[in-house]
Amino acid sequence: MLLFHAVRTGCAWRLPKDFAPWPTVYWYFTWWHDDGTVERLHDALRDQVRVADGRSVEPSAGPIDSQSVRTADTVPVSTRGFDAGKKVKGRKRFIVTDKLGLLLAVHVVAASIQDRDGTKRAPLWTRLDRPSIQKAWADQGFADRPVDWSASILGRDLEIIRKAPDQRGFQVQPKRWAAERTFAWMTAHRGLARDYETDPARPETMIRWR
Asked: Across the strands, what pairs with 67?
């Protein structure tokens, strides 16, 4: 419950005295991160939600997207960068979800990594260890090289969902909307609206605690 509280409120690890000692809480957080407990719990719960919705446990397709977020001043400079397109100095989250918007894979990098390069980073696809997923949808920032790379290296079809030429303002994009909604869910938590962790792998676990 204390970990959920930290993600929800964005409070510092030095929790109020009414809570358990913060070194104990953080020790469990890092231990469960390192031994894969959090990922296994998250995946088991996601599978139950899919079954309850009348779907197969194994998803066949899902959207991929990225989001740049600001980092705290305590985050090492070597692990953050500047997203010139979004004008954000911090880190970038790459996620793959199923059609319900449930998280399948997440990888956190410096915000300076462009979408077309971040898509090809091995850790993202190592985390997406479900061979049943043969198709992904993405926006035009992932066009060209990632499409060819996905087909030739991964054997997966990456379809680019482009905006209509006459689109003005925000509109929900078909197929891609699930990942965009997941980002909205994430940033509703103060602990995920900004990245506070010194190690880029830790925010990935924080996201799974959402």
From this structure: 93
Question: Closest Cα to residue 142, out of 126, 166, 158?
Answer: 158
- Report residue 185 CA to chain centroid gap: 11
**Which backbone phi and psi does 21 adopt, to 5 degrees?**
-55, 130
CA gap 149, 36 in Å, rounded: 29
pTM attached to this predicted model: 0.85
Could you tell me the residue ranges of all domains in the chain? 2-164+171-208
Reference 90, options 206, 196, 201; nearest CA is: 196
Measured between alpha carbons, how far is 193 from 178 in angstroms, rounded to an integer? 18
Q: Residues of 6-37 as b/e, b for ≥16 C-beta within 10 angstroms?
A: bbeeebeeebeeeeeebeebbeebeebbeeee
Residues 97 and 178: beta-carbon distance below 8 Å: yes
Checking if the pLDDT of 128 tops 90, the result is: no
